Amino acid sequence: MMVAVISMETLMEETEEELAAEQFVPSSQSPGDADGYEARLAAALEEWESVGVKEIEISTYEDRSPLSIVHCSRILTYEEAADIIIDAVNISDYRHSIRSTVQRKGLKKLWHKLFGPPKIAVTLIEERDLMFALALVPFNTECQSHGQMVQTIYRKLTGNTYDCPRYGAHWETIGFQGNDPATDLRGCGILGLLQLLYLATHQDNETVTKDIYRISLHATQNFPFAVMGINMTKIVLESLREDCLNRICNERQGVLPVLNDFYVGTYLIMFLSWTKHAATVYDTGYIMQEVAKFAKGSPLKVLHNLQHYRNNGVHSHFCDEHFTSLAA
């Protein structure tokens, strides 16, 4: 829409020019006619004075077409998202559905009690149960923070400046399997999304994330990055439920920080195995079984390997010994 503005001064100038044409008084006219001219001029100027500024709207064809509005939501940090998500969860709503430990019977129960890992500290039980509750919280399209989380992950991985549409094939670029990320997130709930956000945004994971995401886009070795990440969260939850992480959580006096680093470390193990054996999606099942077995059996090695990779950009030597047993 274009707007033409005619000022009062312009209109007054035009009026004076028009009336100036009448200023010449023929000799046959009396002096009274000149006085009439002055009166008419004063009246005209007073009239324009009362008009002020007039706006004239001129529509054009181009201006009628709707504008394409590009939305750019605020990048959400992992710390902000974790605070928002945890504060919004009422663990009592999910208590009846939480399975925080494996129910063992007979000799398995006795063996686990005598030779298994220690029980998790009493002070950490509530936080442990909260992790399982988060895995039961579904992705909510109407929740602003949920939308910001998935948009942040997309923009961080792809380098896009602006948000992408809520639905569409573009989500496959970061490894979701359909037009709606919520479908893939059903398995591990909002915890799966929170850990993806930790992987994609936390500064400690920059090198790890770039390396994993790059191979996920490889011409022959590609795999769905986000879906694979959700599978890593599944391994994390199984490890927590089977008491594999109790000792580390007790030593570090926390659950979520341990789970996050164990998540990234397990994804790193999967990535190293994948690249070493030039695996393809057809090898996913076997690779996942071996990675889960190794992660649950050697969680401390998983964390040490992650720290070594973060510091040096390469994995520690123990991985070479283990990966020789993994199928290509």
**Overall structural domain count:** 1
Give start-end ranges of low-pLDDT stretches. 1-12, 21-29, 51-68, 324-328
Oligomer: single chain
Order of helices and strands: EHHEHHHHHHHHHHHHHH
What is the CA-atom radius of gyration, in angstroms? Answer: 35 Å
Distance N to C terminus: 64 Å
Q: What is the general shape?
A: elongated
Helicity level, as a percent range?
A: 55-70%
Strand content bin: under 5%
The main sheet comes to: 2 strands, antiparallel
Mean pLDDT value: 81
* Order of the strands making up the biggest sheet: 1-2
**Tally of DSSP helical segments:** 16
Determine the structural class based on helices, strands and strand pairing.
mainly alpha
How many strands?
2
Task: Please describe the structure with a list of short key phrases separated by commas or semicolons.
328 residues; elongated; mainly alpha; ELMO_domain-containing; disordered N terminus; single chain; disordered C terminus; two-stranded antiparallel ribbon
Walk me through the topology.
Layout: E1 2-6, H1 8-20, H2 31-51, E2 54-58, H3 61-64, H4 78-88, H5 106-115, H6 125-134, H7 144-158, H8 181-184, H9 189-201, H10 206-216, H11 225-241, H12 246-252, H13 256-276, H14 284-297, H15 299-312, H16 318-323
Antiparallel strand pairs: 1-2
What does this protein look like?
By secondary structure, the protein is mainly alpha-helical. The chain is elongated and about 125 Å long. It has one domain. It starts with a strand and ends in a 5-residue tail after the last helix. The chain has helices at residues 8-20, 31-51, 61-64, 78-88, 106-115, 125-134, 144-158, 181-184, 189-201, 206-216, 225-241, 246-252, 256-276, 284-297, 299-312, 318-323; strands at 2-6, 54-58. It is built from 16 helices and 2 strands. Residues 1-12, 21-29, 51-68 and 324-328 have low confidence and may be disordered. It has a two-stranded antiparallel sheet.
